[in-house]
Design a protein that fits this description.
By secondary structure, this protein is mainly alpha-helical. The protein is built from 23 helices and two strands. Helix 1 packs antiparallel against helix 3, helix 12 packs parallel to helix 16 and helix 18 packs across helix 19.
Length: 481
């Protein structure tokens, strides 16, 4: 029988900082003389009570978490936390149902960036800062999960990074808890620097803080309906490009660089390929826009911002790229799936999986040509274990299958083809806006049915937890002793 006490205890403990975080938007509403501060305070007290009750009632001698408990705990946390984080949205003066509130909350914590809220320009400050705070907390949660949990659970090839995050032979890294704490400090410092840069470029202090949190988290929630385009500032756009890229690189490598070893950050194959793809995509889209009659400087700026925003899964927009023609439409559709680097705040398939799949495929072809030869697939100049190759191939299969199921499910309830296809992609890749007039950069998800919102919420959860973490719970054999 699975022991649920550690799961309930840790879930309860992590609900406590969520309750404390709800006090920050309450303070923002008090400062703005908005009555919604009562909603945030009530939600904070209720969350504190439930979290405290869970923690106290299930406390005990908890020393280790088994892999089975780890699977259940991870999924439980990413369901319970959004469920309680949705309470302020549901009861604030925003005319949102609980379905809408849960969708917004799940989108925030998974750093997806899809929204059902209209008229952000006049939304209460508490709601705006709560959306940004959810993405910021979700971003550091994603990094911690990638470092401490997914490698241990051997999810989708993430075990490839287990040695990198806990290498004791060189004594380059401290224990996992200290590692996460150091990276959280780097994450906070990057957020502060980003906020200062935005403020210096002309944003109000409130906007600078909110956008800094969602930029580093590669989340994409904005305080305006027009997103970053509202500011009409090339400087702000380039600052956004820089810090979206910062959030999409492995944070473990930043720590190594601060410890005096910057070579991994420069020589890492994953980082190099990611930046190469970004550069090629930017110039390809910019050239396409230039050929369409757009001035070269404008074409480069628009291409750089929107390409980086989509490939990193941030979801900001400065233009409706869905109206850029067939090439732009297809380019951004496929960029949704790519994602950034492992150990960053981004989602999607991630660069290292493409590298592992390519290296494995090349090795298989060489074995066909020379059956008696001995060939090994390499990643970062190290042999790839067979277990990792199999895990990555299984991930690709499950990713495509999950995408197809979500898209078909949306179609079955009446969603049009473009909205269903791009909505499934943006949900499972945690990107944010989709394509088309309904959920594209100039639209929202508000007009979708409740059924579509729940399907997309499930897609966000699947994508953020790397599929296997959720799917394994559906197997009857998982629950057998």
């Amino acid at each position: 029988m699975l022991d649920f006490r550690p799961i309930l205890f840790i879930t309860g403990v992590l609900m406590l900082p969520l309750a404390v975080a709800m006090c920050l938007p309450a303070i923002a509403d008090v400062a703005a003389d908005n009555p919604d501060w009562q909603v945030f305070l009530t939600a904070a007290v209720f969350t504190l009570f439930v979290g405290g009750t869970l923690a106290l009632s299930s406390r005990g001698n908890i020393r280790t978490i088994t892999p089975r408990q780890g699977f259940v705990l991870t999924t439980t946390l990413w369901l319970v936390i959004p469920a309680f984080a949705a309470l302020p949205f549901a009861f604030a003066d925003m005319d949102l149902s609980y379905t809408d509130a849960f969708f917004e909350s799940m989108s925030g914590l998974t750093t997806t960036g899809s929204t059902v809220i209209r008229s952000l320009d006049v939304a209460p400050p508490g709601v705006l800062i709560w959306r940004a705070l959810l993405q910021w907390l979700g971003g550091i949660g994603v990094i911690a999960m990638a470092i401490a949990i997914l490698p241990l659970l051997r999810i989708g090839g993430m075990q490839l990074f287990r040695m990198e995050s806990s290498d004791r032979s060189e004594k380059a890294m401290p224990r996992t808890t200290q590692l996460v704490a150091y990276i959280a400090f780097i994450y906070l410092a990057a957020s502060v620097v980003c906020a200062i840069a935005y403020w210096a470029a002309g944003m109000r202090g409130f906007d600078a803080i909110a956008h800094a949190m969602t930029t580093i988290a590669t989340g994409g929630f904005s305080t305006y309906d027009a997103s970053i385009a509202h500011f009409e500032s090339p400087v702000i756009e380039y600052i956004g490009v820089v810090f979206m890229l910062v959030g999409s690189l492995p944070f473990v490598l930043y720590l190594r660089a601060l410890r005096g070893n910057a070579r991994p950050l420069i020589r890492d194959d994953q980082v190099r390929l990611f930046l190469l793809i970004v550069i090629i995509a930017i110039f390809a889209v910019a050239y396409y826009r230039y050929e369409a009659g757009v001035e070269i400087g404008t074409a480069l700026r628009e291409a750089a911002f929107n390409v980086v925003s989509i490939i990193t899964g941030t979801g900001y927009a400065t233009a409706d790229y869905g109206a850029w023609g067939s090439f732009g439409l297809m380019m951004f559709f496929f960029l949704m799936f790519v994602g950034g680097c492992a150990g960053s705040t981004t989602c999607g398939i991630k660069i290292f999986r493409f590298q592992v799949l390519y290296a494995t495929a090349v090795t298989q072809v060489r074995r066909l040509l020379e059956p008696h030869g001995v060939y090994l697939a390499y990643y970062n100049r190290k042999p790839i274990p067979e277990e990792v190759s199999a895990s990555v191939m299984a991930f690709f299969f499950l990713y495509v299958l999950s995408y197809a199921v979500i898209a078909i499910a949306l179609g079955l309830i009446g969603v049009d083809f473009l909205t269903a296809a791009s909505g499934a992609a943006t949900a499972i890749s945690n990107v944010g806006p989709g394509l088309g007039p309904t959920i594209g950069p100039s639209g929202t998800f508000a007009t979708l049915s409740d059924g579509a919102k729940w399907i997309l919420s499930a897609g966000m959860l699947l994508g953020r937890l790397e599929l296997f973490t959720v799917v394994v719970l559906l197997l009857p054999s998982f629950w057998r002793d």
